[in-house]
Amino acid sequence: METVRVVVPLVVVLLAGSVLGVQAATYTPGTEPPEDPSDARPYPGNTLLGIQAKGWFGNDNGTAIVVNPEGETVWKYDPPDSRVFDVEALENGNVLASVATVETDDCPERVAGGERCVHNRVVELDYPDTTVVWSYEWWDAFPEHHEVHDADRLSTGETAIVDMGNNRAFTVDREGRITWQWNATEHLAEGTPFFEEYVPEGSADEFRQGDPESDWTHMNDIDRLENGNFQLSIRNFDVVIEVDPETNEIVDVIGAPTRHRTMNEQHNPMRVESDGTLLVADSENDRVVEIDVGTGEIVWRYDGTGSGELLRWPRDADRLPNGNTLVTDSRNFRVIQVGPNGSVVWRYEMKAERGIVYEADRMGIDEEPDGGPSGRDLTGRSSTGLLGSTLATVDSWMGFVPFLPVWMGPLEVLVLLVGLGALGFLVREFARESAG
Question: Does residue 137 sit in the same domain as residue 13?
Answer without folding.
Answer: no
